[in-house]
Structures are given as structure tokens and as C-alpha cells.
Amino acid sequence: MDKSVFRIGVTRDFLKPDGSCDLDNIAGPRFDAAGLHWEYLAENTPVLTATQVQDYDALLVLGAGITAETLTGETDRLALVARFGVGYDKVDVEACTENGVLLTIAPDGVRRPVATSIMTFVLSLSHQLLIKDRLTRAGGWRNTQGYMGMGLVDRTLGLVGMGNIGKEVFKLAKPFGMRHITFDPYVTPAEAEAAGVELVALDTLMQTADFVCVCCPLTEETRGLIDARCLGLMKPTAYLINTARGPIVDQGALTDALQNRRIQGAGLDVFEQEPIRNDDALLRLDNVIVTPHSICWTDECFQGNGKSACESIISVASGQIPAWVVNRAVIESPKLQQKLAR
């Protein structure tokens, strides 16, 4: 294998069933202009193997996992894993750092699309959109007295996490006249105040918010954060929205709360197990809107993620440190520096 050519491996899960891919129009011109070789991996596997990655300098990854085993082979040339998105719970960050591999994400690509998706859930739930759709289709044109919606003025929008996406949600929600609160241990009161947001404890948010929106990453700290106790604090008229990662919320406890109408409803784009099982009790409930971890999947999101990920790869191919590095401790690694100096 010619190591003088910078080689990029693209995970095969980008391809549509007919073999086409919208990524071609984003990555192709950028990589070709930079003189870089790129290709789709030969196999579509849920977790990449050491054999699959050993001949590449960079990987452009959609949903495939990167484990310590992935990097146990010949990783003397792999310098970058560029995630097409912001979640990296399927990537072993410590293993990347130990092997001199940068991990980047694309927050600039998902900021607005995910924030828009959260507001889509807020509006759809507050207006009981799906229920009224079903009523209309069933001929229940006048049977609307029992399905009063919830106006947003003076309601409380509570975000668990006020990072990149959370700030954008509050920005989009501003014209609706809602009270804005957040729980985020990494945000200072001054930062929250500057954004026009009230920083509160998690219990206060769960007790107060009319819409509890999960916007934090999945980490050991946040896994199971919204458990039965937290859900029990919510108002019976409140809604829970999760577009982050399924395991942040105890799905069994949430299903129980929805089944017994202890909360008004939920909007879920993510689940503890994906894809969700066809016989999951959540799918039989009429007070939850479910989408297949793709509610933000728009042309805007795809273009933004693609542009950001490609820029990270082109930077590394030029021997530079890209933006949006997750494992910044690797930057001083002799292993990485040797790869960048090639």
C-alpha cells in the first residue's frame, strides 16, 4: 500500500439501498480538489475491525463503532476519526488517544437542525398534532373537545444541557414568550444570564418545566440521569423530549409514566435500544411521538455535517490540527505528531 497517498475510508452505512449516496456531492469535490484518495469501506459492519481501518489515514464515520480492538492492529498511519455528527458514544475515546488518533465531531453542522427538531416536537406535542391527524382521518372532525392543546406563552421550557444545541433551542424559542430554564453543571450563572436563561438544579427543572428537553451528551455522568425519581417530579401536564441519546432516560420508567398518564406525553427520536423493537410498549401509546433517530436528517444537516467533517480531514491531511477535536490530550502525542509529519 502506497503510504505517500493520503487515504480516506468512508463507512459504508452512508450508502442508500440502491448504492447511491448524497455524500458524493459534498466530499467528492473537496477531497478531489485537495488531491486526496477516498473510497467506501468494502463491508458495512456495526463495529469497524482493525483490518478495515489499517490502510487509511482518516476515517469518515456515520454510525459504525470504533473500539479498542479496532485500533489494535496496524494503526501507524490512522490519524483521524471524523464523526459525521456530534455523538461519539460508539467511539472509544481513550483508545483513540492512546493510539495517537484524533477524534472530531461536527457541532457546527447539527446545531440548527437539531434545535429545529426539538422545536418541532414542542409544537407538535403542544398542539396534539398526531392525535388531531388521526381524528381527522377517522372522521372525528368535531370530536375535539377532549383534545385541547397547550399554548406556549408563559410556559416553561427546560433544557437538560445548554451546550451548542441547547443555546440554539433557546434562541429559536425566544419569540414564543416562554420562560427559559436549564440544568447544566458545566454552565456558569453568568453564562446562563447572558443567554437570558435561568440556571436551576435538575430537580427544580423537572418539577417546573412544561417541556423537559434532553440536550446533553451520553456520558457516564448522564447515563440513566432521567430516572423514575426524576420523571416522578414532572407535572402531569408536562412533556418530555429526547433527541440526544436514549440511555440518558430510563425508558422503562418513561413508558410506565406515559402508560399511567403521570405525564402528558413525549417526543422521542432516540431509544435505549436502536432500532426500537416492533413489540416495544412505547409504540402502542397514543401520547408519544416517535421518530427513528433521524428527525433532524435534512439536507441542511447533511450538508453541514459533511462540510465540517471534510474540513477536519483536509486539515489533518495538511498536517494541521482540525477544529472540534474531542480528545485534545492527543494533540501532543508523539504518535500523532509523527503521523501529521508524514
Characteristics of this structure?
seven-stranded parallel sheet; Rossmann fold; five-stranded parallel sheet; 342 residues
Describe this structure in words.
Helices cover 33% and strands 13% of the residues. It has two domains: 7-105 and 298-340, NAD(P)-binding Rossmann-like Domain (Rossmann fold), CATH 3.40.50; 109-290, Rossmann fold (3-Layer(aba) Sandwich). The strands form two sheets. The chain has a seven-stranded parallel beta sheet, sandwiched between helices. A five-stranded parallel beta sheet has the order 2-1-3-4-5. It has helices spanning 24-33, 50-53, 93-98, 107-126, 129-137, 164-173, 189-194, 202-208, 228-233, 251-259, 299-317, 334-340, and strands at residues 7-10, 37-40, 58-61, 80-83, 102-104, 156-160, 179-183, 198-199, 211-214, 239-242, 265-268, 288-290. It has twelve helices and twelve strands. It has 342 residues and is of the alpha/beta class. Helix 4 crosses helix 6 (164-173) and helix 4 packs antiparallel against helix 11. The chain is elongated. Strand 6, helix 6 (164-173) and strand 7 (179-183) form a beta-alpha-beta unit.
